């Protein structure tokens, strides 16, 4: 086990204390649902103080549906009273060092009482070759008082400008303003038309869509129909960017706001839409299927309904940020991670680690709900959120998660991307396929990436690159225009550099994109076409003539020495100087960056079950130091094998660390490996310290097991119990200098003392603490205080006092979107399940 670096910890404490009153983006932020906006200043202050004390960096106000019995306290969105409590929130945030963001609306997506029928989303169907246009009829989902109304037509020529007039007048009289405006995921279902769509199509695509409209319904694979469908999607994508995303971001910046934008779910090119914002934002919805031992996955979560988080979808947001030089990339984090009252900190950390490795560095918890102080437990809850608020069962230990996230995000935000490969996103090949979403259009959502990403050759290639250890970003047709070529063929966006541009196996390519490839290739860029060259130019107008020119240009580009059609991608990438990181081969997930000092920096997470420790080649082979969040730095042992330098990395499933090039490691201690272990056995004394509904009687155990198996109604207990045991060491004390204690299966958080010395709190897999400094030869007294979830208590609470479920709209549902009923649950294992081992 690694020794604590006390000097590092002290310096970190000083840094955090000195910056307590400054707004931090390194700290995690949280969604903050205002139910009915039935808020008051005193309770706002109380909850902001909780957030600040817990290590949260900011809040994101989202007005939402209300609470039964609080109708008189509801505040209409953007009314003078609403603006006053919003400004109070910002003032208090400044006092406490908390930032404040807000949605440019209520619920989602954009819409409300200021959206007239003419501005509302429209849907077009083709009947007998004619367009039949109707309003979608969709209204804002989960609106707050003052926010109900039709969803805005995202393609309308003046819709966004008219929508924002309401906010102009509101903020004209608001001296205190949020840091950022927010646009939730697209979700304008069925919207596929606007009043001047036919005219815009004619202008942009150079032919009359109405004459070809019947081809949108073609299912025979007619080549012309495919081209028309591509043109149709291309027009939607352009209008969405020009009339929806850019006007909103331009308005926000003119008013002094940053923008956070969730582009996913839309029919546009996500890379272009994310880039339009100051802070691109993705979403982690549900639980990833990590294979690490001991990680629980809610069995009620429906993959068929919601899919699972996917790092490739997340990389669309981080790629856009990397190419355009944006420091922050955010994520809506923890949506439906598990059922209410069942989420542990140990389930949250792996999802955040996955986000970090996908390039995300500005975590927004989903989320916290404003709840009056007098409400008590469980308080007001939002139907789809993990509860990160004051009434959460992990609120006591919430600061530990936040300290971890802050330390990681500081390093991630202060470093630069260092990816070798640029992968072109051939969205036209997607548009050539049958849409699986409503309205006959492709919606590029984070929930079901299989519908638009994974089945394409682009998706399969990206999965391979991720699995095989390549560092890469995605690039759109528009983004290629910003690249120049430097020495040795290096591609430069002005903010990030790449050694190779890879074109996945694609059929369709715009002639404008081919011209960009010609420009880059002629300047010396290294371009690799995976397996084949594109064979068809997009655009139905004058297609035959343009196809001939396209064929000639493709041949010319492919004949250049620095351009290859690859049948052995690994070999061709290696020939271009691309590094294939061995970390992935070992079963580890990583992101590679450049530190502020220009040194190689890796964040590495063990999210699997194939690696415990071993020799690994990092990059081109350099001396590396390991920096474990909140523990300090140590130099790693190295060796040279076949001319390559390797490091010895000890990283158990569930652990994560930073690795950095070490220019001079003379003053950094070496880390030692772990080789032996034995189980601590005997009689465990169990006493219950605090919790609900009442304290069970003490117990004695010779075998560790869930306390729910004990008598005295312990199966309903939610709280804290102390486990105590006395043991002697085996062998001389000296061999245990670097020893640690592995707690085995912990449900859910364990604070550990040994011989009266605090060893710290274990809150994530693997549940381990350093113990060498506290051990003695005989009579070691080990005390472990374990806190469980609130799920078991809610089984009783829902029988006795179900009146807390009093919300409008969807009220409160379970993870299957059925009426919430905890009385049907079986008791969840709780306490110290072990085995507890001494590792040395």
Which strands sit side by side, in order, in the main sheet?
A: 1-2-3-8-9-10-11-12
Q: What is the total domain count? A: 4
Helical residues, percent: 25-40%
Task: Give me the CATH architecture of the largest domain, please.
Answer: Alpha-Beta Barrel
Strand content: 15-25%
Structural class: alpha/beta
Count of β-strands: 43
CATH superfamily of the largest domain: Glycosidases
- CATH overall fold name of the largest domain: TIM Barrel
pLDDT averaged residue by residue: 94
Let me know the largest β-sheet: 8 strands, parallel, barrel
Indicate the multimeric state. single chain
Counting DSSP H or I runs of 4 or more residues, the number of helices is 19
Radius of gyration: 28 Å
Instruction: Identify low-pLDDT runs.
Output: 1-20, 664-672
CATH class of the largest domain: Alpha Beta
Distance between the first and last residues' Cα: 7 Å
Inertia-based shape: globular
GO molecular function: hydrolase activity
Pfam families: Glyco_hydro_106
Signal peptide: 1-20
Keywords: Hydrolase, Signal
Describe what this molecule looks like in 3D.
This protein has an eight-stranded parallel barrel, surrounded by seven helices. It folds into four domains: 23-416, TIM Barrel, CATH 3.20.20.80; 421-432 and 440-575, Rossmann fold, CATH 3.40.50; 582-661, Sandwich (Immunoglobulin-like), CATH 2.60.40.1180; 677-839, Sandwich (Jelly Rolls). It is an alpha/beta fold. The longest helix is centred in the first third of the chain and has 32 residues, at 223-254. The termini are close together.
